[in-house]
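#data-curation
PF: Archiving a pair of folding outputs for the training set. Convention for this channel: one message per protein, sequence first, structure tokens after, nothing in between. First:
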Amino acid sequence: MKKLHKLLLSICSPIVATPTVLATSCAPTYKPSMYQVKFTNNSVSTSLKDCSKPTVSMQELICGTKKFHSGNYMIILGSECSANSNRFFSNNPQFSKTHYDYTSDDAFVGSLFYNCINKDAFVNSSVDFGLVLYIDIESAKTANKDLLRPEQYREFDEKWDSSDVKEAEDRDINTKNKKVIVENKFKRNDKSASTMRSLLEYLKTIFTCDSFSFGCSASSDMPFGMVWKEGVPQKDYFKKIPVSDAKESAQKSEEYFDNTLELWNQKD
């Protein structure tokens, strides 16, 4: 396992800031959550079911590769436990932390995300580019299984605190469930949550803190966009995509995508 970690880091050595051995694997477990938005026949994918799987691994994309759309691509990180992600990908500007079916037939139609890319400039662009989504989606088997507050959404990086432990003790929850609520342990340990945490740690290892950073809660900084041009990371474009109910925010979101397309079109 350690050999795999060192190999991944050595592959990315041109952009490594402070190489360290990761505590968890960066194996191809990322792939099931990766979706490539398709631009075909003057139209755009309208749901994850319409998207295709990228032909390269997340590791290759992060390190920078020209095997994927000549090295011109964007990765958007999102999570269904993030209210802003749900607002961005759904057609409901008031969307809050409730389950959203990302695989429904009209998942993206009318959404801010769809409006940003369903334009002539994108659909009929002469430049070859790729758009990859990596979205944390909690399994139905574990969703709403929070023993303290099952009605609430659990963020993938959220941990139990001392007040949670006390409440569990008061309600005798830990006794009945073998102490599943332990201070400073993650609330979610499903595959999607653990691989998203692993991916973020990997990104923080590869890129410097000033170009890739999240606040106390990573999900609150999503959707997060990252851009590569000709296989080279464009760190000025590594940022949280503005999402809110305000019209100005929608304009800023569109500007981010328009500027990215303009960057890909520029001749160096």
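PF: Second:
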Amino acid sequence: MKNQVGSRLDGAGVVWRKSSYSGAQGDCVDVARFDDVAAIRDSKDPRGPVLAFEATTWDVFVADVKRGGFPSV
């Protein structure tokens, strides 16, 4: 999946989103959705590494977070 995602991210048209809950200090991640992939990167290092997940896997993770499935430590 890495090569597929890398080549897509290099192309034009990839839109990265930052959560509206992001802190002013940049302590957040950016997410780009395309095809069947969710790409995640550190907002402080936009040219750095990118994690890629199947979109359905990312959706399940986000739903679990919203339900409180990952209480703060």
